[in-house]
Amino acid sequence: MIRSMPRAGLALATTFVLAGCLYGPGGPSPAAQPSLTTTAATLSGDAAHPASTQNWVRTELYFGIGYADQPQPGISEAEWRAFLDAEVTPRFPSGLSVFDLYGQWQGKSEPRPERLRSKLIVLLHEDTPAARAAIDAIRSAWKQKTGDQSVLRVTQPADVSF
Hints:
By secondary structure, the chain is an alpha+beta fold. It has helices spanning 7-23, 77-88, 129-146, and strands spanning 56-67, 97-105, 114-126, 152-157.
């Protein structure tokens, strides 16, 4: 007994056959392929916003600002913004992004996870010794201000264009 092909399968097979007829055995010709255009930077001449970048990275910094399950306020929004204004913006005046987060972790001997309200700063910058030192200074300033043991840092290569 010969089984009939479902309609969807027949339509898909027909599409492949017609595509083969249209383009032939070598596939689409270069002229038939969509062209990829590059967008030029609109901020040309601004060193902080280059047209193309090399050796740039994306750095994420995670800051705990208070316990999510406890009524104590932790770090207030005003204190957080004062920290940004005093410690972060002077080191990265070209810009950054800040996100509100909730995070958690559980110690090996802890029965429940510790839940934290958090802030995330995202920086796009050249990977230079000066930028790395500025990030370490921000992390140190936060630990000194709050008594926290750490500020999580994640850095990865970034392809950036303005």
